[in-house]
Design goal:
With about 450 residues, the chain is an alpha+beta fold. It has 7 helices and 24 strands. It is about 15% helix and about 35% strand. Strand 7 and strand 8 form a beta hairpin.
């Protein structure tokens, strides 16, 4: 049996999923009591028709009480997926919206250029207004919590929504039903000149895709931005270079010489002009996939030469097996000096937040697509699976089709239901036979 995936070539060229068994769930909290030193459950939901997905989390604000100073930005959001004891997602409210730690302080005038908002996230108020539409998939259950940043009681506003029977759509791609979202945080890591740091890793048993990378960096100047970002997929010993420089990875140039910006693809949310900044890069329209494990590697400053090796960012393109053309580096270095791009090897301190999807390396690519919008087409596809598995006879299959065409709503709903896995086929066959002979 075949499952159809509808792809719309619209603005941004995004994949879409046919309307079928999806239903909306969610909750909102207004003027909620948020005690100090407490991880408060703000939502929980059991998935009835997998795959299920969170589509929106919005935290309008956390108001302080008892004389506490505004500090909403350090509230902690945690997401527990499928009964896990340690949350796959644990972020500050600033990190939820990819805002740097230096960019917003309480209800002061923000230094992040907000209000701003893109499809994936935004910040629309001095006192918060942070939201994320990052798709958070789950197959059994999900629970969200918020922990207060205050010493005394506080007041919370919270909104969450999601869909049942809905896979994750990442740009042009429909991800497998087994996909999970994980967030990896590195905090206040100091690097010397040419030091490497691994921002995120994935085990060899999983494949996946990057969703978003957020960077906070502090240094005495911006020469550390010469860094090239590297991705090692599987057992590769030579990286895939994701950038020709750090600011280039964030789709800018020349040490961000035009200041702050926010786009659906990347943004600079803090910039003091002296070595400190915050930036984000999204990979919804720029998919970066990995297979059988991964390492995402950052470097403090860079060395450049040849076709590209783990230690040398390439300065040219080489065909497989080709020897690098020896370049006259003296003229290149002279031009760079004329434009203030001489690397001084400055030390820097980094905080990074990497959002990535992971799924078992052997997961089927189409496993997450729900039943087609047409219930008759969905039923025919299901009957083909049942016949292939030897669970129904051709006579029973014909009887089911006759009942569907005659408008039997009970059999139509049952036959066109989205099945979470192959183990449900036997149960479906038995229930169809029971209703036919009732």
């Amino acid at each position: 049996a075949c499952v159809a995936i509808l792809v719309l070539l619209a603005l941004g060229a995004a994949a879409t999923v046919p309307l079928g068994q999806q239903t909306t769930f969610g909750h909102a909290i207004k003027n909620g009591h948020l005690p100090p030193n407490t991880e408060l459950t703000t939502f929980a939901h059991n998935c009835s028709v997998p795959p299920c997905v969170i589509t929106l989390i919005h935290v309008p604000s956390i108001y302080p009480g008892g004389g506490d100073q505004w500090n909403w930005e350090h509230g902690i959001l945690k997401v527990y997926i499928d009964g896990e004891a340690t949350p796959s997602i644990s972020v500050t409210l600033l990190q939820l919206a990819a805002i740097g730690n230096m960019a917003a302080v309480g209800d002061d005038v923000p230094a992040d250029g907000s209000p701003f908002g893109i499809g994936l996230m935004g910040k629309t108020a001095r006192s918060g207004g942070v939201y994320s539409t990052a798709r958070i998939p789950f197959s059994r259950s999900i629970r969200t919590t918020v922990t207060s940043p205050y010493v005394h009681d506080a007041v919370l506003w919270f909104i969450i929504r999601g869909l049942e029977a809905q896979p994750v759509v990442l740009g042009d791609l429909v991800l497998p039903a087994a996909a999970k979202l994980r967030v990896v945080t590195m905090t206040n890591v100091s690097l010397h000149n040419l030091d490497f740091i691994t921002l995120a890793t994935a085990d060899a048993s999983v494949s996946g895709a990057l969703l978003r990378v957020q960077l906070d960096s502090i240094a005495s100047d911006y020469t550390y931005l010469e860094a090239c970002v590297r991705l090692y997929s599987g057992n590769a010993t030579t990286p895939l270079y994701l950038s020709s420089g750090a600011e280039d990875y964030f789709l800018s140039a020349s040490y961000f010489d035009e200041g702050m910006f926010k786009t659906p693809n990347s943004g600079l949310t803090f910039y003091n002009g002296h070595g400190t900044l915050s930036a984000y890069k999204t990979h919804t329209l720029d998919p970066v996939l990995f297979h059988d494990g991964m390492q995402l590697v950052w470097r403090n400053c860079e060395t450049t030469s040849g076709c590209g090796t783990p230690n040398l960012c390439p300065d040219q393109f080489c065909y497989p097996g080709q020897t690098a053309v020896k370049a006259d580096r003296s003229s290149v270095e002279q031009i760079l000096k004329e434009h203030g791009r001489a690397s001084s090897g400055v030390d820097a301190m980094y905080t990074t937040v990497t959002w990535l999807y992971e799924w078992p390396a052997d997961a089927k690519a189409d496993a997450g697509v729900p039943a087609a919008a047409d219930p008759i087409a969905a039923c025919i596809a299901t009957l083909a699976r049942l016949e292939d598995a030897g669970l129904v006879s051709k006579a029973v299959s014909d009887s089911v089709v006759d009942a569907v065409l005659a408008g039997n709503s009970r059999i139509t709903r049952l036959c066109s239901a989205t099945l979470p896995d192959g183990n449900s086929l036997a149960l479906l066959a038995r229930q169809l036979d029971r209703i036919l002979h009732a």
